[in-house]
Amino acid sequence: MAFLLLLHEKMRLQRKVNKLTLRQLQLSSRKERITNNISKVQKMYASKQTQLEKSAQLWQSQMKNSIYNSMGLGMQNQMFNPMGGGITSFVANMMGSMLHNGGKDIPLGDNKTISSFSQQQYQEMMTDYMTTGLKESLNDEQQGTGKYGNNGYSKDQVTAFMKAMQMAQAQQQQAQFYAQQMSSQYESNISVWLEAAQAQLEEEQNAALLPLEAEETEIEADNTTCEAQLADAKARLESIKQACSEGIKESAPTFGLG
Questions:
Q1: β-strands 136-138, 144-148: how paired?
Q2: Which of 41, 141, 229, 245 has the fewest other C-beta atoms within 10 Å?
Q3: What pLDDT score does 84 carry?
C-alpha cells in the first residue's frame, strides 16, 4: 500500500514538474517578446531624439547662412574668393553706395570735394584696383604723372576710393559682430527649444515603456516563483524516485538467496 502511495505521489510530482517546465517556457517566450518590444520602443525614441538634434543643427546652420547672406557676408553672390583674395560683397556694396553718395559731391576734407562716381566708373575703378592696385603711372623718366591705374584716375579719386574701402571694412567688422550676435542668440533659443522637445520626448518614451516594463517585472516575479516551485518539485520527485526504487528492491522475491 505504501509503495502505491509513493507511485501515485511520483506521478503527481512528475506532472507538476512538467507543468512548471511548460510554464517556464511560456514565461521565457513572453519575456523575450516584451524585451523585443521594449528594445523597439527605445530604438524608435532614440531615432526621434537624433532627428531632433539633426533638425536643430540644420535650423541653426540655415539661420546663420541666412543672416550672413542678408548682410553680404555669406556665400550667396559672394565675390570674395579665399584662393584668390579680393574684397567681400559687403565691402564692395558699401563702397559703391558711399562713392555714389546719392549723386552728390563727395567731401574729401579741407573744403575739397569731387564728383560722385557712376556705377560704371566705380566698377571700372574696382577692376583696376584688383589688377594694378591703382598705383601711380610713370613717365619715360620714371617720374610720377599724377595719374593712377590703367585708366588714369586722379589722386583725389583714388583717395576717395581708398577712404571708402577703409570705412566699408570698418563697417564690415561691425556687421560681422552683429551677425555673430544674432546667430548666437538664435542658437541659444534653439538650445532652449531642443531641451524642451527632448524632455517631452523622454516623457512620451517613459509613458510608452511603463506598461511594458510593468509586464516585464511581473513576468520576472512569476518566473522566480516558478523556478522555486520547480526546484522544490524536482527535489521531491528525486526523493520519491529513490524511495520507489528502494521499495521495488525490498518487494522483489529473493528466491531463497536472502
A1: antiparallel
A2: 141
A3: 72
